[in-house]
Amino acid sequence: MSDSPVSTHDPKAPEESAEPSPQEQKKMEQAYAQMKRKMSMQEIGKKIKHKVMVLSGKGGVGKSTVSTGLALSLAQQGLSVGILDIDITGPNVPKMMGLDGRRLHVESGRIHPAQGHLGVKVISMAFLLDNEDTPVVWRGPIKLGAIQQFIGDVEWGDLDYLIIDFPPGTSDEPLTVAQSLPDIDGMVIVTTPQDVALLDSRKSITFSESLKVPVLGVVENMSGYTVSGKAAPGMEIEIAAPAGKTLKATTDEEGNFSVTLDIFKEGGGKSTAEEFGVPFLGALPFDPGFVRGGDDGVHRIVSDPEGASAIAFAGVVAALQEQIIDGESVGLEII
Ligand SMILES: Nc1ncnc2c1ncn2[C@@H]1O[C@H](COP(=O)(O)OP(=O)(O)OP(=O)(O)O)[C@@H](O)[C@H]1O
Ligand SMILES: [Mg+2]
Q1: I want to staple 94 with a disulfide (CB 3.0 to 4.6 A). Which of 21, 31, 99, 161 is the partner?
Q2: Which domains does the chain have, with CATH numbers?
């Protein structure tokens, strides 16, 4: 045997010679934490019956409005619902849920969600910000690590639905979530009827291939704006609509009339869904009440629970629930 300084493993050597170096110790701790988080994510996954991702290719089409609306509409049915707001750079779910300025509540190392309107549980990256005007510039790995932590360390309890709201585009975040959280039912793609938004939603549909998460359906947001008014009974009214069109309506016996203006064209969400053979979940009207609700913290579904927008959301939710039967997603998986 040579006296080589390189140590070789001797199974008969006493235990204390296998003392790990500080670096090895750190690696072991990290691996242990990672394993615990993975187990925790599996556990969490089991306690949440349905997980739905809300995505779009283009920004500003209403993902957060739709995520919060779906969550509130499900909560209106008496279901227990949570929202996970993954948008690190512009998280605005807390504002829409009346939870502006909240901070994370941590107990025994577990993160507890805040409760917004109708008891919906909310976890948002915004709860980490000191000041809502401070942009969060996190490098990729830190951001993705934070997302995993937000999935693994949150005490959601038992939920019927978890709605996950994403930033725009087809980036790393949906991939991280899809890899971390088991049994995601599928994704809802939000689009406006505009051509450019449609093109982007087509990209999102194709993106579902790489995620191996089925598309539960397409929602067309900001679909049409309904104008109502009153004049003499039986009167013909002409309204100047976008694109030089004239809309005609006749007042009823009480003098009421209403017409729907297609601000951003019409029917694009449906045709995209048909083209890709995925379900069309429905259209949501253009409703300035959503913008007001975003500003004053009272969501449209809460301020007007029986209004046209709440009814439209209930329709979309019913179509979504049809796609998710007994824990089995029947959404189309594009391979
Ligand atoms: N159906 C609607 N009618 C009127 N305004 C709407 C509607 N849907 C969304 N909005 C408004 O459009 C703006 C963008 O909506 P929202 O924040 O939900 O979009 P987003 O897709 O989540 O945006 P981002 O890509 O920045 O995350 C908000 O001011 C919201 O109030
Ligand atoms: Mg958003």
Answers
A1: 99
A2: 48-189+282-316 (3.40.50.300)
Tell me the two tokens of residue 26.
């750190």
Distance 173 CA to ligand 2 centre (A): 13
Distance CA 335, CA 213 (A): 10
The residues, any chain, with a CB within 8 Å of residue 149's CB and separated by 6 or more, are 37
* Residue spans of alpha helices (H) in 52-129: 63-76, 93-96
Q: pTM score, two decimals? A: 0.84
- Tens of pLDDT along 24-79? 888 888 888 778 777 777 888 789 999 999 998 888 899 999 999 999 999 999 99
Our separate counts of H helices and E strands in the chain read 10, 16
Q: At 259, list the tokens.
A: 């017409």
Nearest C-alpha neighbor of 247 from the set 228, 233, 222: 228
Alpha carbons 146 and 139: distance in angstroms, whole number: 11
Angle (nearest 5°) at CA 51 between 49 and 57 = 170
| Pocket perturbation via mutation, ligand 1, pick of 64, 163, 200 by most ligand atoms within 8 A of CB | 64
How much is the CA Rg of the chain, to the nearest whole Å? 25
Residue nearest to atom 28 of ligand 1 (CA): 291
**Does 168 contact ligand 1 (Cβ within 6 A)?**
yes
Q: Evaluate: CB of 294 within 6 angstroms of ligand 1.
A: yes
Return d(Cα 234, Cα 214) in angstroms, integer.
50
116-139 pLDDT, tens per residue? 999 999 998 788 766 656 555 666
In degrees and rounded to multiples of 5, residue 115 shows phi and psi of -105, 120
- The torsion angles phi and psi of 162, rounded to 5 degrees, stand at -120, 120
